[in-house]
Write a structure and sequence with these properties.
RCK_C_sf, 11 strands, 26% strand, elongated, monoatomic cation transmembrane transporter activity, NAD(P)-bd_dom_sf, 7 helices, Alpha-Beta Plaits, 28% helix, Rossmann fold, six-stranded parallel beta sheet, 212 residues, alpha/beta
Length: 212
Amino acid sequence: MDRSYAVFGLGEFGRSVSYELMEIGADVLAVDKNENKITAIADDVTMAISIDALNEMAYEKLGLNNMDGVVVSMSGNLSASIMAIIAAKDAGVPLVIAKASDDTQRTIFKKVGADRVVIPERDGAVRTAHNLVAKNFLDYIELSDKISIIEINVKDEWLHKPLAELNLRSKYGLNVIAIRRNNDLQTDIGPNLTFDKGDTILVVTDKHDLGL
């Protein structure tokens, strides 16, 4: 994997996301104001930098314009979170995921530009990391250490071909359990099912098959 991500805020959630991204194979820039947290994680990520997220000039040395995604995990500091979200979007980062502590923060972070907002009590760090790196995936739910449910975009080469012919189970380890078409979720999945442009599918798969 050649993708790069920045994680702002190295509390428990931010560290977990950083470790999971590294485990997946991404490059990770870990960012926090606390020098002790930077020292603690420095050997486990690609790069770790201490900055004051409230200092607008500090973002210039981070190279956010080269990042494929950013996680903002500073919900305890509303102003710093807002600044980091805005800086990331201004730099052209295509996907910014922000951690919120409640629905009020969720609303604020969405309004200032966050593409997705997670509340840790509802959304785990592993799920956040996989949602960040897997550009074909719309959602990721971990059922166990080995099994996950994923909502995935239908690939162009799958269009208008019967499900039986595609043989997704053998080729990719994907077991289709539902199809979403025009916002309607259909669970009647048969071997003659064909996919249209814009369809997404829900599949059950081994979590190690996420390289699709």
